[in-house]
């Protein structure tokens, strides 16, 4: 049980720290744009990468450093693009969040899935956190798959929460001013994360 809880709380701490992904997922949830589909994709990616770390941590540790710089540059570009989009909405937005969920879906389900996959997989910190950190701790424990199950459950709980709280928050964001403030905050978070990634190159 202790191994399970250690994996759970470690994973929660790592996921919460990935601000750009959380902010984007929450924004899509508030817009009611396939929130549970996006949440499931995030859970699946986390669980899969953690499992990869458990199964082949030593091998991956050898080749991962060579590809991290490429993911870093792609991640910077992705975050910068999302930041510009949020900034334009904050500047040009003239209405609050539309109550009708269907009218707020500005992309298809496939586009939403591809976007969240890009945002998740182009962030080098995802690999360092899930494959390297979780993988190394899991493989050093007596029950690596129990550790993994706790870590994977933490991801499921966190992203389910983000998907669930979108609808209550959407009522508060029907005000045009509040909605523009949210987009402005989203722009700042994405810009800050992009700058932070750029500094690591």
Q: Which structural category fits the helices and strands?
A: mainly alpha
Helix content: over 70%
Q: Rough shape?
A: globular
Taken together, the total number of domains comes to 1
**Proportion of residues in extended strands:** under 5%
- Quantity of strands, as a count: 0
Q: What is the count of helical runs?
A: 7
Main sheet overview: none
Rg, alpha carbons: 18 Å
> What is the straight-line distance between the termini?
39 Å
Element order: H for helix, E for strand: HHHHHHH
Mean pLDDT: 80
Poorly predicted sequence stretches spanning 5 or more consecutive residues? 97-104
Main location: membrane
Protein name: L-lysine exporter family protein LysE/ArgO
Transmembrane segments: 6-26, 33-55, 67-88, 109-126, 146-165, 177-198
Keywords: Cell membrane, Membrane, Transmembrane, Transmembrane helix
């Amino acid at each position: 049980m202790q191994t399970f809880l250690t994996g759970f709380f470690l994973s929660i701490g790592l996921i919460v720290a990935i601000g750009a992904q959380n902010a984007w997922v929450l924004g899509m949830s508030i817009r009611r744009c396939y929130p549970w589909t996006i949440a499931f994709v995030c859970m699946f990616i986390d669980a899969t990468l953690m499992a990869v770390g458990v199964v082949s941590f030593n091998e991956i540790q050898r080749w991962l450093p060579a590809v991290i710089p490429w993911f870093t540059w792609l991640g910077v570009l992705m975050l910068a693009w999302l930041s510009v989009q949020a900034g334009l909405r904050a500047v040009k937005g003239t209405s609050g969040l539309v109550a009708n969920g269907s009218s707020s879906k500005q992309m298809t389900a496939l586009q939403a899935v591809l976007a969240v996959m890009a945002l998740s997989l182009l962030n080098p910190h995802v690999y360092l956190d899930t494959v390297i950190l979780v993988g190394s701790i899991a493989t050093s424990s007596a029950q690596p798959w129990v550790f993994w199950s706790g870590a994977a459950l933490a991801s499921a709980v966190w992203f389910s929460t983000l998907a669930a709280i979108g609808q209550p928050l959407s009522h508060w964001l029907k005000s045009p001013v509040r909605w523009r403030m949210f987009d402005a905050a989203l722009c700042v978070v994405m810009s800050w994360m992009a700058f932070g990634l750029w500094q690591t190159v």
